[in-house]
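Researcher: Before we compare anything, I want clean individual predictions. No alignment, no superposition, just each chain on its own. First chain goes here; please echo the sequence and then give the structure tokens.
Model: Echoing the first chain and its structure:
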Amino acid sequence: MDELTLFSRFGLALAIGLLVGLEREYSQGEGNLLAGARTFALISLLGAGTALLGEAVASPWPLVAAFLLVGGLVATGYLMAARVGRVGLTTEMAALVTFATGALCLHGYISLAAALGVATAVLLSLKLEVRELVSRLSRQDVYATLKFAVITAIVLPLLPARTYGPPPLNVLSPRDVWLMVVFISGIGFLGYVLIKLVGPRRGIGLTGLLGGLVSSTAVTLSFSQRARKAPSLSRALALAISLSWTVMFVRVLIEATVVGDQLAEALWPPILASGAVGLLYCLFLLLSERPAGREEVSFSAPFELGPAVKFGLLYALILVG
């Protein structure tokens, strides 16, 4: 490893430690400060330094010993803080993560280390926001999150990606079918989460915008089901569906440009015209909404798997047919 690369990796480790430490120093204040910018910077540099030493001697023990040292200091600090009534492991765990990011920097995992460092600082700064969000959660919300995690992180990876069926009908892939189920249910779940965060009207609109980047069909199916159960939100849901299709036109044009300039030149006039019509209709829905229809209304169920599974089966039949 040349010196420039080595110094740049130590520099990133130092920057990550300073970022996390500055957040802790700002949030905790002088009187409650367990570890600040300098301490976190040193912890990150210690991680990078002992990782380098481990490479030099071809042994993991320098890094392990330093990690145990930091862990012991963290445990001591926690016990001392607990004696005066300050109970919490957030800063202590952040110190261990910062040590790990320093080691990752040295080993060349630059993007991962930077992402972990920024994510750590952001999570630490969102203490009040996270508490407020948790206070607004119900048991139903927790169950919905767990169910969505199961169908996405457990069921989807287990399904085979190969296609089935006799030629030329061997187009049915269980993973692709279930991925459509995940899309449909995920759009509804995203809408529910955004409603919790920013309110029904803005949450539904944001879901339409973001959902259009992935699947405008999924947005349409998910929100059509919602409109039947929440008629008072029909106009907002129609706006979200229109937004998703408008975004879809932009997405298709970008994809066509990537495939080839000639294809994009042939497609941009009709796509641009369709997108403009969609945008005008979105503006019409937004401006013509009656003030009386702006009351705060929320979805009754955060996650519904049944309609998504039905469409997944329909999608499979379309593929086979």
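Researcher: Okay. Second chain, same rules.
Model: Second chain and its structure:
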Amino acid sequence: MILFLYASLASSVALQIDLGCESMRASMMQRGSPVSIVMNGLGRRYTPAVASILPISDQAPAIFTDQDVQYFKRSVGDISTVQRYPLNSTRFLPQILGKNYSSKLVSYFMRRNLTMPFDSDEDKYLDLIAPPEFFAAQLLQSAIADCKNSKINRTVDDLALVIPKFLTHHQRTAFIRASKLSTYTPRLVDTFSAVGTLFALERSQLFRNKPMYVCFIDIGASQMQVSIQEFTKAQNVEKGAQNNEKETIVNELGYAWTDLFGSYSVDCQIARAIRREIRKQKPDAVFDDKSVQRILHAARQVKHELTLQPKVSLFLEDLVHGFDMTFTYSMDQLKKRCRKELNALNTTFFTAFWKAGFDAPEDIDRFELVGGGTRSPLFIDAINATFNGKVPVLRSLNTEEAAVIGAGYVVASSRKNYLANNIRFNGVDAYDITINKTNDGRVASFYYKGDQKLPIGIKPFIRAVDLGQKGKYEIVDGRVRVHGCRKLTFSGLYKEKRTRVEKTLQAFEEIEAKQSEHDKLMHEFDTFLIETREKLTKDEFVMKASSVEERSNALRLIANYQYMIQKIQMGEECHKGGKNNDSEISGDLDSVNSENEVINGKFDESELKRMKNDIEEATKLIFKRASDLSDSPAAYQKLADLLESINQAVETDWPKMGLRPRSKHLKKLGRQCQKTEKWLDDHEESLEGVSLDDINIMYERLRQAFEIVKKNLKQSHQSSMDL
């Protein structure tokens, strides 16, 4: 029992997940073992952003077309803001929920995407749109499942999510909601807390004797972050610590960020260059959805080749239908096109530099690059050019997985006796939150200070609550948490505090239960169609008892219904009479859960019953005749056996026993026997066209006449015995 308990405890791990960049990364932390990477194939090719913006059509582009970009330019005002969405998860996931989009933009998303009705937020921070945290929860569950399957009896007891530090209250809440949908309450670890902890653990020898100042630069798909940190060793003054034991102290001195540009902007610049070259060589080129996908894929290929050599020349095939070309591009051309991205990086660095209080860049000991975007020499050359190579620019940490590995050590440092040396991280706050109290301190409103930079589309207002007499509030990890309060809406009405996660879970459970029941009905109906078709085409009695025209009509009806089911399985929308059902999909939760409707473009229960009845009516007569043809020989033989047994009783058995039935009953039995014998003689050669019901009726009449005679004989015999 003790060994089993020890094995169970040893298999429990903490899982860390980074939903950012172009793919999901995951790591697991277990006591006594270094943090290791969890391989998750689903997260490397499918992100919450791609899921939430996935169009209905299979032919839709992976990025937006020119017309879409023009539309978003009018709505948002920045083309790069739009173009980064499809391959970015960290930004798109919370922005859908944390942004107060214009109605025009929301209507575009609802028109292009399969939306699931969601309860509208009273503060207008949530619009009626498919919740991306539902897709994020599916990815989290896949990573959790992969972690559990990596070893027998392995369980996940803790979940941590790596997020950028500049995420606001609503954006952090979106990540927590996604985790709770996957049945875990997470802890949020910002990128540079994780990276700083990893550096302090793996590079502790560098600052053993004197403090060290490191500038971390994180370049993701759509954002750039800079953090300047100080690493020192100090005496551990905690109770019970050894006299010679020292702890590592990491002080974050300055932090800055931008969400206007990232590595995905570089892909878009190269893609535009490829498109311009195609226009030069083929002026009549037509860019369809597939062309946009191929151009973007070719742009990434060019960017990766530029990491190895300053100039590349690639032969690109079939970018536009039937058109191939050789594309030549150099790093110098890319630098000219990416001036905005490089200027944004310099501005972000100097902002963090000034906040840290440094006088000269040479005061920094080294630059450490993390994030997938730092693979490109474009940003490395820009940093070296800015500081004339006076400060070394290194990638000593695992660039793409440094944050998720460091998050594992952050979790380990929060647990007792997990790390040999204690690591204490003192971070700076990305935002200052102002609390405004009115009505004698009863109503509290939370705002971001007006002079602070906020992510695109985020308003300064956070929330307003009625504290009452026992209400409390606190700011934890950049989120405003309240206890015992009533939520106050803009209209001033008081409403009961809503637990949005519970409502979301309840809504999805109801939808999943109804979907499961519907899938069961669809499977039963599909099985019924297959069995009916098999019977019509392979049963020899059906072939003999029906004509080709009758079978063709029934098979045509079955094929029609099977085609409609196939459309449903392929994801196409199908409704009664073949009509589209977009209006029902865009309803509210009540309409989704209402009865007698088509679920996600599928047949409801009443429609399935109607179609099943149609097929049964079309095949009823055919199967009836086939049944008669297959069962008639046995019924014929049964009738003949009964007739033989009656003749044996009347002619032999009863005279031997001295039994004499009444002549009236015997005559009736004789007439019925004659009719039966004549019918048997007439159909001795063939039973074609004979109904099984007719044979059963004749058998029943003969049996009843025989029973009447036997009953009369029994009564006569009893009377003679009494005398």
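Researcher: What stands out in the second chain?
Model: The longest strand covers residues 246-258. Additionally, Residues 1-9, 49-130, 490-501, 572-600 have pLDDT under 50 and may be disordered.
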